Amino acid sequence: MAGTLTGPLASWADALEPGRLAALLDASATSGGPGGSSLLPVPPATDRTAWSGPDGPDRATAVALVAAARARRAEPWPAPRASDLARFWLDGDRVAYETPLFARTGRFAHAVVAAALEPDPTDRPAALAEVLDGVVLLCEQSTWSWPAHDDAHLRRGWVLPDRDAPYLDLGAGEVAAALAWTDALLGELLEEAYPGVRALVRREVRARVLDPFLAAFVSGPDGALDGRLVPDRPRWHWLGLDGPAHNWTAWICGNVLVAALALEDDGARRTRLVAEATAGLDRFLAVVPDDGAIDEGWSYWWEGAARALGALDVLRHASGGVLDAATLPVVRALVAFPHQLLLGPDFVASYADATPRVDVQPRPWHVLHRWGRLVDDDAAVALAAAHRGEGVVDLAVPGNGLGALLPALTDRAWRDAGGAGGAEQPHLAERVWLPSTQVLLARPATARGLTLVVKGGHNGEAHNHLDVGSVTVALDGVPAVVDPGRATYTAATFSDRRYTEWHVTSAWHPVPAPRGREQGVGAAYGARDVEVHDGGAGLSLDLAGAYPGSGVGAWRRSARLLGAGERVEVVDAWELAGDEPTRVAWVLAGEVELSASGAVVRPVAGERTLEVTWSADVEVTASLTPRALTDGYLRAAWGESVTRLDLVATAATGRLLTTFTAR
């Protein structure tokens, strides 16, 4: 193993040698509580003290989850249809199939938890029957992978999955992990009521997930792994061995880890699976920059970093505390990232395929809360606690699977963080500079005022939008000059048609269009000569390299927050060839009015307005271009429309000052 761990987890190499790792896992597996034991950090449902005693889940949540699950038993289970699965390849729609699919897995998660929480022994058989139905439905599902990821179409031209060659993707890992958490929680009770169900689960998880995962790797002596891939096998991009690791690496390896710990009964295989999944987590952590920044944006922290943190918590438990990542600098940096981009209670600084609203979907805030405690990051703890609230939804996050829901229910510190209604307000960083992504955030010392966010970077980033040099401005924590963010994913989103989608283009980001040009696609197109100034309150950068061709001789953009945070100034200075019009665009969210003296923006929330004025040493004309929003994600962020303020000049050289003032 010493040769396969080269990242932040390299110090674990000795503990991951087959003999020692097997001993660690065996020791943890024999030290459980009532009703058996589990290598997963959840007490079995047979431990009634853990599930119904004063130290168990909070009563309001337990009562609500049980009541909801009872009510749903009379309803038919959601039924994903093959014709909808095929639509991804026929017309690009992935939502028609995913909507009932996610509804099914969400109902299953609630059913499993409700069976553990069920206070009435006479109702427990019905609760277990509901779980059994969910287990069998999942095991009989023709594929666990999501249609956008399955490779049968690429390999064979099929629009349906190839059951003889299952694709291990996010969806397959999620189902395997859900069944593993179910077995750890209810396995004994289910087997007593329905003999053979545990064998069914193990067979399906082995065939669809564990066997394909192990088959990718060359095995070394005595079951040790040497990190090489088996030659001539199809490559999974998320392995991080013949390409960069990314959020899938953490997400899938974490789910493989959970499935192996709960469902693999062969000790040698279990050890191999745990070791290789841990090596995958190491590869993910190795590509995280020192500042902990996620180039995919805030939303994807939850789909990569948070998944990795959850998996590291499982490893900590399964190894009896020997494999403990809490002291690693990269982990501390990851934990800090969410609160560094916070704009206010409801919004975060957003770029790439991220969403700007904090609670656009349920988040497993307990993960951030727990790791904030482990690494002593009070700001992370405060941010998570502010979203704990008093309601049930804050704990019940079925959209994130049983791997999030069960730890949230059984973490006593997280349970006790509730009831304050978010009284502890999260810390708002005044100055943030993330050099790896070239993102700067500057704000005043209070929540009131303007927050400036400037992004450099390049156009080859993960989930990239053409946004080099983007300047966004929030007023009292609410974005007014905005990055539109993500829309609903389709077949075009991750294809060669990606940059035909308007919300991804530079034309609809707050960046210039020199001589009408849009930015180029790829890492070669990026910011140059980037400088932080004004004590971290400003950033200047050369944008000429973000545009293809030789006509952009120079474009220097400088942005800074002034005074007590009531004014932002952005200076654009350029030297161009040609005579086509040049546009400096500002994408505005809210009500916008244009007059001879400037523009006024009333953001989508808040009481004050943002005034936009400009002056230049060349002639500039101003106009508004509204854009109606029809996509659900974009409407949830900004309402019915966004508006682009276009400042247009034709001069070959010029200097434009745009000022944003809080009113």
Automatic annotation (TrEMBL):
The positions making up the signal sequence are none
> What is its subcellular localisation?
Cell envelope
Where the record annotates domain Heparinase II/III-like C-terminal, the positions are: 449-599
**Example of a GO cellular component annotation carried by this entry:** cell envelope
Superkingdom in the source lineage: Bacteria
Q: Per the record, which residues fall in region Disordered?
A: 32-57
Pfam families associated with the record = Hepar_II_III_C
Its main localization is other
GO terms assigned for molecular function: lyase activity
Descriptive protein name: Heparinase II/III-like C-terminal domain-containing protein
Organism of derivation: Miniimonas arenae
